[in-house]
């Protein structure tokens, strides 16, 4: 049984569930408030705090986990990152009160008070810049600590920066760009049977990620224009061309195209005589 740790709430939870649904993996809960669910045959999902997932995966309590890169780096646990999952993008940033006359971390006075839940990332960042600081460990709501006089600066997750601005703070530096990742337990990867299951699960998610931003295009084109079709529709390994029943001068060309290129490709196809053009979405894609 493959055990997969998933965020139980917060910025990463909804994206994880959406990704699993798009991969055709339905969560079936054992009760209204259950912290476990089946995830298809041979897989169990465990719902835990995002910050705990790296530790659970590292010690083998879970074989796989979906969490943030920032939380993996903060935990410092021995796990293997298998996939960047393409959602939850943000950054871990250092921010200070607007009234502090600092342009970067080097301008901060020694002993500056920094409130954060990212204790290890903050220590490494200040050490790398040769600065000393006073740690104010917290578990949340970092933005309010300067207003309360508890801290002069914070290290926290930042998306748009609007929360910082509304609390009289400004960014001074980025410690880490982060997003959701799929991580694996070294113990699971060392076991042949579980490693195959881990690889299969990762491949399933990867097929969804590869389909993002892609469209499947089909068109009836003149056989005489095939040289142009190869240029217009490069596809993954070139377009697929098949005969059309009862037609000798017309063939059907199929290819995967980038969503951004669809309008241009349609215009170029019509210019060489293509008809019956159909564009559809792709749920999953593996080259």
Walk me through what this model shows.
- With 287 residues, this protein is an alpha+beta fold.
- The chain folds into 3 domains: 2-88 and 179-211, Periplasmic binding protein-like II (D-Maltodextrin-Binding Protein, domain 2, 3-Layer(aba) Sandwich); 90-178, D-Maltodextrin-Binding Protein, domain 2 (3-Layer(aba) Sandwich), CATH 3.40.190; 214-281, Alpha-Beta Plaits, CATH 3.30.70.120.
- Helices cover 28% and strands 34% of the residues.
- The protein has helices at residues 13-22, 53-58, 69-75, 119-128, 162-166, 186-190, 192-211, 226-232, 262-271; strands at residues 2-7, 27-29, 36-39, 43-48, 64-68, 80-84, 90-97, 112-116, 133-137, 153-158, 169-178, 180-184, 214-222, 240-243, 250-258, 275-281.
- Strands 2-3-4-1-5-12-6 form a 7-stranded mixed sheet.
């Amino acid at each position: 049984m493959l055990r997969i740790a998933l965020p139980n709430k917060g910025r990463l939870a909804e994206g994880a569930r959406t990704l699993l649904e798009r991969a055709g993996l339905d969560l079936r809960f054992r009760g209204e408030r259950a912290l476990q669910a089946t995830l298809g045959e041979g897989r169990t999902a465990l719902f835990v705090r995002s910050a705990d997932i790296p530790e659970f995966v590292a010690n083998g309590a879970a074989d796989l986990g979906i969490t943030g890169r920032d939380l993996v780096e903060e935990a410092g646990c021995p796990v293997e990152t298998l996939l960047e999952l393409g959602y939850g993008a943000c950054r871990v940033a250092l921010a200070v009160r607007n009234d502090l006359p600092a342009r970067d971390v080097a301008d901060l006075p020694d002993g500056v008070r920094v409130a954060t839940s990212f204790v290890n990332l903050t220590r490494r960042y200040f050490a790398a810049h040769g600065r000393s600081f006073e740690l104010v460990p917290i578990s949340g709501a970092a933005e309010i600590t300067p207003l309360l006089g508890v801290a002069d600066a914070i290290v926290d997750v930042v998306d748009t920066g609007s929360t910082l601005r509304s609390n009289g703070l400004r960014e001074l530096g980025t410690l880490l760009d982060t997003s959701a990742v799929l991580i694996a337990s070294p113990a699971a990867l060392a076991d042949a049977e579980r490693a195959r299951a881990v690889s299969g699960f990762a491949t399933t998610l990867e097929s969804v990620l590869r389909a993002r931003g892609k469209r499947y295009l089909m068109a009836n084109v003149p056989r005489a224009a095939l040289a142009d079709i190869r240029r217009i529709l490069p596809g993954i390994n070139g377009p697929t061309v098949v005969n059309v029943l009862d037609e000798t001068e017309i063939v059907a060309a199929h290819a995967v195209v980038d969503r951004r290129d669809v309008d241009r490709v349609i215009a170029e196809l019509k210019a060489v005589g293509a008809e019956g053009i159909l564009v559809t979405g792709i749920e999953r894609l593996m080259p």
